[in-house]
């Protein structure tokens, strides 16, 4: 049986959900490597809805994170509270503002952020079992709250987000768009993706490296 990877989504669209290119590149690389995957998302209401054409909130409209994530997964999506770490070999979290608005409240609380319970419970099993955990773009900001202090991660070079990671007890490492940061002891792999990328090809380089390293770690 092929190795299985859980992919956790936070909606659909960079401004209020999962970053679409980051998600697609992650799924593409998993498939290229012959790795199985299943997508999960919380069955909760989005923080708000953004008109991606104009970049402004849409007044009076609500959307469900699980339903929106299904767009990215072509309908093959499962509620996050059904994710069992013992059924998978690794887990990956693409970025997008849904991480900071739906999976947590980082967008409004900064370094006082809280992570939704379903995500905390899902990631605990992977961390305790020393199964690889990949995070990209803004999602590494969750690591100190999700997994504990002292874990090295990167969001690239953004001083505000790096400062928040440090304030929560995390270790931020500066990193180029096409590279990754590995905390081998904790089996955590991170890459800046669209925290730095200006083109999809730039994002792809780091994301592919992240997925490749996750694949290698599953054998260790």
UniProtKB/TrEMBL annotation:
By its UniProt entry, which InterPro entries does this protein fall under? Answer: Class_I_gatase-like, ElbB
The lineage's top-level taxon is Bacteria
So what does this thing catalyse?
glyoxal + H2O = glycolate + H(+)
| UniProt KW keywords | Lyase
Q: Has the keyword tRNA processing been applied to this entry?
A: no
CDD domains the UniProt entry points to: GATase1_ES1 (cd03133)
The UniProt function text for this chain reads: Displays glyoxalase activity, catalyzing the conversion of glyoxal to glycolate.
Report the sequence similarity comment from the record: Belongs to the peptidase C56 family.
Q: Which PANTHER family match?
A: ES1 PROTEIN HOMOLOG, MITOCHONDRIAL, GLYOXALASE ELBB
Q: What is this protein called?
A: Glyoxalase
Q: Which organism is it from?
A: Halomonas saccharevitans
């Amino acid at each position: 049986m092929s190795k299985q990877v859980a992919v956790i989504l936070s909606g659909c669209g960079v401004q209020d959900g999962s970053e679409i290119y980051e998600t697609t590149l992650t799924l593409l690389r998993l498939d290229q490597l012959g790795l199985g995957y299943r997508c999960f998302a919380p069955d909760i209401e989005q923080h708000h809805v953004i008109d991606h054409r104009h970049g402004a909130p849409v007044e009076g409209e609500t959307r469900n994170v699980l339903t929106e994530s299904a767009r990215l997964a072509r309908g093959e999506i499962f509620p996050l509270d059904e994710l069992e770490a013992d059924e998978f070999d690794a887990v990956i979290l693409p970025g997008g503002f849904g991480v900071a608005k739906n999976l947590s409240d980082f967008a409004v609380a900064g370094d006082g952020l809280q992570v939704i319970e379903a995500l905390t419970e899902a990631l605990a099993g992977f961390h305790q079992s020393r199964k690889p955990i990949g995070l990209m773009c803004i999602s590494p900001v969750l690591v100190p709250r999700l997994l504990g202090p002292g874990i090295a991660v990167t969001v690239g070079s953004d001083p505000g987000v790096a400062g928040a990671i440090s304030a929560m007890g995390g270790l931020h490492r500066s990193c180029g768009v096409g590279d990754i940061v590995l905390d081998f002891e904790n089996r955590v792999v991170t890459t800046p993706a669209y925290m730095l990328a200006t083109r999809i090809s730039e994002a792809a380089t780091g994301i592919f490296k992240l997925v490749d390293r996750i694949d290698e770690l599953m054998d260790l």
